[in-house]
Design brief:
The complex is a heterodimer of chains A (153) and B (678).
Chain A lengths: L2 H29 L1 E5 L1 H5 L9 E7 L5 E2 L5 E7 L4 E7 L11 E8 L5 E8 L8 H19 L5
Parallel strand pairs in A: 1-2, 5-7
Antiparallel strand pairs in A: 2-4, 2-6, 3-4, 4-5, 6-7
Chain B lengths: L1 H29 L2 H30 L6 H6 L6 H7 L4 H22 L5 H25 L23 H30 L4 H33 L9 H26 L3 H23 L13 H25 L14 H31 L5 E3 L1 H21 L10 H7 L1 H13 L9 H25 L9 H8 L1 H26 L1 E8 L3 E4 L2 E12 L3 E12 L2 E6 L2 E5 L5 E4 L1 E3 L4 E11 L3 E10 L1 H19 L2 H4 L5 H18 L12
Antiparallel strand pairs in B: 2-11, 3-4, 4-5, 5-6, 5-7, 7-8, 9-10, 10-11
Classes of the chains: A alpha+beta (153), B alpha+beta (678).
Chain lengths: 153, 678
């Protein structure tokens, strides 16, 4: 091979590699984005079924119940406007409490139940999961707007 | 008094950093030896004052001085003394003080071990280190002083976060910071070379051991962090692709690329610009890590309290460093020249491929880590990128890298014959492929991932050992004893092979634990047995026990295999007096081929608990691999050729010329290597 041909081969090979890697990365990226939705979004039915996403809010007071097997837990996550039932199997974080912030990863099942594969609570006493705070903020902003125009338009 | 002495010492260190960051650079530009000499004394002085500041804070912790806000927030009279000492770096302010102390240590180390280097080079390197120190000490002083008083003083401290009360955490941050901050030396060398316009094999030889040591410390730091997460967080996971883990992993990947690129620059004089670029990028990623962890943009165990000033300061600091060094690069890089040419199949190409793959991997991690933060910052919605993304990207990138790793060290510089190479390694390749595919059958049902992992691991180990044996084989004409031949290998070479074998162990461990771990959350009543991973776990009793600063529920779990008692595990649920939150304390039985892991979840009615029971095969191979990698780094850095002292610049240049001449004759760089082909 001549020097020029070789260089051409290198450049073409390099470009092909770059294109392949970029495609691979972007493809993996698109498939694995986990979106965040609030309980209000779920009730408003703007959330796709069977896609993994995160919800955040407060664990509703008096909603936590353990199943007979000791492993299944049912509770409700609220953004102070609406609440969504959640089911989870396994050990809850040490700081999981009623009335406290929580973030869960999972997907929506038939009947509007959120099946969580992972439940995260705060990990120290000063900390509120930002997504839980966000959900409440959005719900309250919505509430304030509604209250501001009680008769509608 | 203690706090005031500490603060005063910190201010003095800051002033010395300003002197170190300016005078030697001016001196080097003007050729003024007196000004250049300031760098060394300023570095020592800085270390002394930072040491005093640090000692004062430690003293305040040990003597429970709760009139200092930081101490009151992170300690408690009941805290065991070793945790009071390590509590100094248990929060943002104190860990930053540790960071600058370590930076002072690296500066002083450069000042001490650079006596054989040209005066201008030392002055420039120390000057750049001084500029970095100004940034970090300034950050400590102006936004995060650990010496702030609490008025009125607290009667009792709020205690150290129980998660941080663990031996693993005593050493994790210092090791990690040694690594992070160590890369500032490689960065300083790169910037010094750009300023001086001198970037040659000698430069690479000076900068290489520093990079290797920093890289080895970072490896230890990340390994310890992972080990700590595995053991303390109690989720049984050891890597979560959590943004903070990624923050430390990106500089590691980039640093690994730098280490390999430096090899080409030292041996062949090639890749010069690329090496400098990598040094700049590695240090930029270190700054990014500091920003991610300390600005409050992330929420994780590592994230410290939110304060917008801190984030802004670090962001500005990062912007100045990155923009400044890249501008300098654009301006000066043209002057440093190109190295020797090489063919498609050569060690240079292999190392170039290694670099490209590592940098792409780091970029992919960067994308997954920063994209959600950007979206959030611009109010475009909250998303997160899950571990599947990182796994999907990492596997295809690491596969060719690991395959190449078996060939790399056997490839010749400049040009090699692919057919001959394949022929030399055909047996190793075949045997590792066959055994690799069979091995997983001894652990569980066959899986592709585990098969590939075992194959690649064996392939790397096999080709490393074959290379070692070939090099130790006596040459016909020479009468050297085995001892001499071992010594002639050089620590640099041995270190490389040790580190590569470490990589192999990590690969085997990771793929096996991913493929075959067994995890179960179960309700366990006293007397009940559950089966996990072929082991029987029986809950014998539940008791209450008392520790120095906590009460605990303790479960006694007997583990059986084929009816035979293997071990007894005692996990605890601890209730620290000073905290509202309970903390699960994991009990582990470690073994070469598997870890058994029991963790308490929550109490259930009827004398029962929800328990988390794990079987983790080959987990310890991951840690052992990390240890070997770090060991390899330290070994390589201690090679004799880096320690040759008191040599003048012209002699070094002479030797480069000789090396180059020899290359021209033999077509390869390592004159000392026996020819593996025989």
């Amino acid at each position: 091979m001549k020097k020029r041909q070789k260089r051409l081969l290198l450049v073409v090979g390099g470009l092909a590699g770059v294109v392949m890697v970029t495609g691979l990365v972007l493809n993996a990226f698109r498939d694995n984005l986990v979106f965040f939705h609030t309980p209000s979004d779920i009730v408003a039915e703007i959330v796709p079924m069977e896609r993994t996403f995160r919800i955040g809010g407060l664990v509703e007071d008096g909603s936590v119940a353990r199943g007979d097997d000791g492993i299944t837990v049912h509770f409700r996550v609220t953004d102070t406007a609406v609440a969504v039932p959640v089911v989870y199997q396994g050990i809850l974080p040490n700081l999981f409490r009623e009335g406290q912030g929580v973030v869960a990863v999972g997907s929506l099942q038939d009947g509007g139940v959120f099946k969580a594969s992972q439940v995260m609570a705060r990990h120290d006493e000063e900390y509120m999961p930002p997504e839980a705070a966000e959900a409440i903020k959005r719900a309250q902003r919505e509430a304030a707007r509604t209250v501001g125009h009680p008769e509608g338009y | 008094m203690v706090a005031e002495i500490g603060l005063f010492a910190l201010i003095l260190a800051f002033l010395l950093a300003i002197a170190q960051g300016t005078l030697p650079l001016i001196g080097a530009a003007r050729g003024d030896t007196a000004l250049m000499a300031v760098g060394r004394s300023a570095a020592y002085g800085q270390l002394v004052f930072l040491g005093i500041a640090y000692a004062m804070l430690t003293y305040a912790f040990v003597t429970d001085d709760f009139s200092i806000a930081y101490v009151a927030n992170h300690s408690n009279t009941l805290l065991p003394t070793q945790y009071k000492v390590s509590g100094v770096w248990g929060g943002h302010e104190g860990s930053l003080l540790l960071w600058v102390l370590i930076l002072g240590f690296w500066s002083a180390a450069v000042a001490t071990f650079s006596r054989s280097l040209p005066r201008e080079v030392v002055a420039r390197v120390l000057g750049v280190m001084g500029l970095v120190a100004i940034g970090f000490i300034g950050f400590t002083l102006f936004t995060s002083s650990p010496f702030e008083r609490l008025i009125p003083a607290a009667m009792e401290g709020r205690d150290l976060n129980p998660m941080l009360q663990d031996p693993g955490l005593i050493i994790h941050p210092p090791m990690l910071y040694m690594g992070y901050v160590g890369f500032s030396v490689a960065f300083a060398f790169a910037i010094a070379a750009l300023i001086g316009g001198r970037l040659d094999a000698a430069w690479a030889r000076w900068s290489r051991p520093w990079t290797a040591v920093a890289w080895a410390f970072l490896t230890v730091g990340i390994g310890l962090g992972s080990w700590w997460a595995y053991y303390v967080l109690g989720w049984g996971g050891w890597w979560f692709w959590d943004p903070v883990e990624n923050a430390s992993f990106m500089p590691w990947l980039m640093g690994t690329a730098l280490l390999h690129s430096l090899a080409v620059t030292e041996k062949r004089g090639g890749f010069k610009n690329w090496t400098v670029m990598l040094a700049i990028l590695t240090f930029s990623l270190v700054l990014l890590a500091a920003f991610l962890v300390r600005s409050g943009v992330l929420t994780s165990v590592h994230a410290f309290a939110v304060d917008p000033d801190r984030g802004l300061y670090l962001l500005l600091f990062m912007a100045v460093v990155v923009a400044g060094s890249l501008t300098l690069f654009a301006w000066r890089a043209g002057k440093v020249g190109l190295g020797g040419g090489f063919q498609l199949v050569s060690r240079e190409s292999a190392l170039l491929t290694n670099n490209v793959l590592l940098v792409v991997a780091a970029a992919a991690v960067l994308l997954g880590t920063l994209y959600p933060l950007f979206l959030d910052a611009f109010g475009l919605g909250k998303i997160s990128v899950g571990p599947p993304y990182f796994e999907a990207v990492f596997l295809p990138l690491m596969l060719p890298l690991l395959l190449l790793l078996g060939f790399g060290p056997r490839l010749r510089w400049k040009q090699d014959s692919p057919t001959e190479l394949l022929w030399r390694l055909r047996w190793i390749f075949g045997v590792s492929l066959v055994f690799g595919m069979i091995w997983p059958l001894f652990v569980g049902s066959w899986s592709f991932l585990a098969g590939i992992g075992a194959f690649l691991g064996l392939w790397i180990i096999g080709s490393s050992l074959k290379d070692l044996v070939d090099r130790l084989r006596p040459r016909r004409e020479s009468q050297q004893t085995l001892g001499t031949r071992v010594r002639r290998l050089g620590r640099s070479y041995v270190g490389m092979q040790v580190a590569h074998i470490g990589v192999a162990l990590v690969v085997i461990g990771v793929t096996f634990v991913l493929g075959y771990d067994d995890e179960r959350d179960v309700r366990m009543a006293v007397g009940q047995t559950v089966e996990v991973g072929g082991y029987g776990f029986r809950l014998d009793s539940l008791d209450e026990v008392r520790g120095p600063n906590f009460d605990a529920d303790q479960a006694t779990v007997s583990v059986f295999r084929d009816g035979q008692l293997m071990t007894t595990l005692t996990p605890q649920m601890r209730y620290y007096f000073s905290q509202e939150q309970p903390m699960a304390h994991t009990s582990l039985h470690r073994g070469i081929f598997r870890d058994l892991y029991v963790n308490m979840g929550e109490e259930l009615p009827g004398n029962a608990w929800v328990m988390r029971v794990y079987y983790k095969p080959y987990m310890n191979w991951v840690w052992a691999g990390a240890v070997l990698m770090a060991l390899g780094g330290f070994l390589a850095a201690s090679d004799r050729r880096y320690r040759m002292r008191v040599r003048r610049e012209d002699e070094v240049v002479d030797e480069d010329a000789k090396l180059a001449a020899k290359d021209a004759v033999k077509g390869r760089g390592d004159g000392a290597e026996p020819n593996p082909a025989g």
